[in-house]
Amino acid sequence: MKKILPLALLLAASTSIAGPKSLKDNGTGITEDGRNFEQVQVTCSGKKDPRNIIKFEDNWKWCTADESYCSSKMKAAKRACKQKKNKA
């Protein structure tokens, strides 16, 4: 138990530093190949520029703007915050 508590505190602290602060709906759009998508702007802790995540209408997964990672909305937002810059 003594080892678990410090580890949990460390993980909680590192998550809050690198994680998303807020998610804001950024509308919808259509890609060049005709796919419809929803877009969310992610404001990250410790970063000036917001990041974007997208979800295509034919898929339940949210993806980073460059589509290099797709998962649930929060996991995609966390991954977007870890990327060096917004790639789309």
Percentage beta strand: 35-45%
Summarize the main sheet: 5 strands, antiparallel
Strand order of the largest sheet: 1-2-3-4-5
Q: What order do the SSEs take from the amino end to the carboxyl end, as H and E? A: HEEEEEH
Computed CA radius of gyration, to the nearest angstrom: 15 Å
N- and C-termini, Cα separation: 44 Å
Structural domain count: 1
Outline the low-pLDDT stretches. Answer: none
Total strand segments: 5
Fraction in helix: 25-40%
Provide tags for this entry.
alpha+beta, 88 residues, 35% strand, 5-stranded antiparallel β-sheet
Describe this structure in words.
With 88 residues, this protein is an alpha+beta fold. The chain has one domain (4-82). 28% of the residues lie in helices and 35% in strands. It has 2 helices and 5 strands. It has helices spanning 4-18, 73-82, and strands at residues 20-30, 36-44, 51-56, 62-64, 70-71. The chain has a 5-stranded antiparallel sheet. It starts with a helix and ends in a 6-residue tail after the last helix.
Task: Describe this structure in a few short sentences.
This protein is α+β, with helices and mostly antiparallel strands and 88 residues long.
Give the helices and strands, then pairings.
Blueprint: H1 4-18, E1 20-30, E2 36-44, E3 51-56, E4 62-64, E5 70-71, H2 73-82
Antiparallel strand pairs: 1-2, 2-3, 3-4, 4-5
